[in-house]
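Researcher: Please generate the 3D structure of the following complex. Treat every line as part of one assembly.
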Amino acid sequence: MQLRGLSFIGSDSGTPGGATFRAFDPTEGKDLEPVFHSASTAELESAVQMAAAAAPRWARLPGAERNRFLRLIADKLDQNAAVLAAMGVQETGLPLARCTGEVARTSGQLRLYGETAARGDWLDARIETALPERKPLPKPDHRSMLRPFGPVVVFGSSNFPFAYSVAGGDTASAFAAGCPVIVKAHPAHPGTGELVGRLIVDAVKECGLPEGSFSLLFDAGFELGQALVKHPLVKAVGFTGSLKGGRALVDLAAARTEPIPVYAEMGSINPVFILRGALAERAAAIVDGLHASATLNVGQFCTNPGLIVLQRSPAAEQFIRALTAKLAATPEGAMLTAGIRKNFVSNTATRAKQLGVKVIAEAKAVTACGAAPVWFETDAAIFLKNGSLSEEIFGPSSLVVWCHDGAEMLDVARHLEGSLTATVQAGAAEAAGQGELIELLAAKAGRLILNGYPTGLEVSAAIVHGGPYPSTSDGGRSTSVGTRALNRWARLVCYQNFSDELLPAELRKANPLGLLRLVNGEITRNPS
Amino acid sequence: MQLRGLSFIGSDSGTPGGATFRAFDPTEGKDLEPVFHSASTAELESAVQMAAAAAPRWARLPGAERNRFLRLIADKLDQNAAVLAAMGVQETGLPLARCTGEVARTSGQLRLYGETAARGDWLDARIETALPERKPLPKPDHRSMLRPFGPVVVFGSSNFPFAYSVAGGDTASAFAAGCPVIVKAHPAHPGTGELVGRLIVDAVKECGLPEGSFSLLFDAGFELGQALVKHPLVKAVGFTGSLKGGRALVDLAAARTEPIPVYAEMGSINPVFILRGALAERAAAIVDGLHASATLNVGQFCTNPGLIVLQRSPAAEQFIRALTAKLAATPEGAMLTAGIRKNFVSNTATRAKQLGVKVIAEAKAVTACGAAPVWFETDAAIFLKNGSLSEEIFGPSSLVVWCHDGAEMLDVARHLEGSLTATVQAGAAEAAGQGELIELLAAKAGRLILNGYPTGLEVSAAIVHGGPYPSTSDGGRSTSVGTRALNRWARLVCYQNFSDELLPAELRKANPLGLLRLVNGEITRNPS
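Model: Done. Output below.
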């Protein structure tokens, strides 16, 4: 597959002109071919108009057909996995095994969300049948369910070139929910984006879906993304990236005449509380597990453990010594982009100068985009006073916070901002006594992990990848991973006293799709 | 029950001082006793701090205990219905039967939401059990559900002194979801608010709940409400009122360091499309039904039918003549407040001057707060060009839009902004052919009504009272009426690899609460 460097406006190619940019190989430290061309304002307008024109057809598209489309994209990803992963490696510096695994995760997500659409239980269909004889007033027939929003804009992430980019979780869940999608490609891996985008364009054609079902826009700067969020025909936005970038889009959307939801997954420090019993029972295993979790793919995960909280003791000090020794010996890796690497260097340099903060591990990095672990320690008293120490440093850097006692650990938990995850490492005998800590952390994070590590995410019906601000923009009401992700792209519609043939199939008396529905208080697949 | 004119800061009385105001009897046109005292900044701070302190206890409070509390409030409302309704009549000018009925609806809501909390199925509990042997990686145990946000602020509405005020739907659903509530009382019916507030304070005591479970704040102006929305410990807001007032709060919440959700139910024009067949079959019945819906309680409903769309024909013109004759003979009624009446007079006067808009019914109103129907007509071509004609006029005023043909009716439907409801009146033979119109309206409203009227709202599991902007602030993702209203006050939390005794009871293996849970893809009440 030859790269063209052009957007997809529906099935049409964008035209050259406007600002250009190139991908960059962070491992080799060199620009890549070809030149990519920013989409023009007219092309953006055309993509949005086509998406809006496709929205009614998408809203009526049966779940089974959405499933067919998503499976087709998944099959195409799998068939092209080798080419895709190779391109991903070149543009992101991530290892081949990671990119190969991520393609598989992406096709798995597409299939899971497709099945969810086909099954249709996520629609929360509810029926209250009429009681025409009720006094003083007859009870009308009410049938309600979730219906798609319309055109969704998805911003590809820098750190997941597949699973959170062009055909990633936001795109897959929006399609599954019945929304046309316009993706703003992340400029750090445009070639990967183009390859994946072409597969989706092909799938749109093969399924006979309207052209406006999908567009992929490139941009050298921020203007196009901002214009997408402000466009009156765009109804919702998905974003994975930095707090600064996400908040800017959230603010733009909130300032619209018609505000729209922006589901932004942003910064997260993912605190890890390590209790005495855990160290007594398995210090060496935790050194290995935490080291792996904190350094995997150069620490470039939204679930990277950025804060380690423990109580000072000889055993804890020995644990941290063993961990920092391992960190200091960790080989450097290429970061995703030169910009991310620059921020990592500058953020760690700033933190090193904070009063009462000490560098405890600093591994060497010598290549252009390379980074290696830089860890810090401080006392809880200082952490509680210095708000900047709660900020995420994206990359292989964490802050160890030393507490005097259990009460101070609880103070640290109370002080935390929102995170995607919070972890507790506890000994067999002490776990049961951590109710207060767990309850505090449940108010601060979307996923609580006992005796595990925050990286590694199961894509399932029960997973939650979302948390209080600033980890997400919607306070953790939704998840960007797992089947509940579909709910983000839909709103409630109720039909009162409708004749059966005018109802969507999902709400008809005979229940032709066999949905699980709440009928007069009972969950059932029976007719109503 | 003697009124004191003071806020409730938990179970404590607020203190006099600061700005004062009085209720006003719109029927008699006179100020009422006693003087009400605005809460001070210190009292607001104390109410919020107490609510935050109560939040962890509320988050752990079993659904059955939330139910007990809500039932107790409901019982107290019913026991005091006569006194409450009389006070409501005096402060709002609404008829006694309406106020009596509204108290009953309010206690009904409290009981329904309490039952919903006790049953617990709304929590969307989901479990994926571990597969320790899975390759390449073991699958962890994940258990997730909705958990309460924490302190919620509720703004009482002017037009529902009971059902959307101190113990109304927002308060009841927030309690049911497990959140402490601070109500900012509507200044138009403070005596009603105080009476209801005292019943809630008593119920808090009798149930042994923490003091911060509930506070009720009075304010002569807007500052206190704004300060509540900006307070860092407040986690969500419910509001029912005008677009201007709702949007101001939405914007304040969006500008916070940590943005929070504001569920604002605002303006709605509730279009009614009347097709030829409906007029041929039952013109006289629709004259009566539409007249009743549009004039009930002086048109002061959020579901008041504000836009009537029909195709010009002799039958349609005769229908409108019959309707306007009935409207012109409609006796005046007192509006809720002098301010609402002033806006009604000014908004109808402005609309009367719009190019191409004609007054077709204007009933006489002579008393100080009185209003009577003022209806307008215009052509679709003018409606489509003049955006101000899409704005709601709160009160007994509607706009008839004449279309040349069915295509122009679809154009009007396409042009509509979001509404809470949209209605289609169709004849027996023509309903089935209205798929395109229904589909267009499904994108514009939260509740679609066939051959009925928009006023009158069933409080149930299937109802939706929410719609695209500007009818609500969240694009219709949620409903402020019905059991789904609880979901607004909760976020998702997932527990990974937790030992059973550390899990909330809702997620434990034995399923001690007997919840409906999604366990490894199956909906079941069985253990996991």
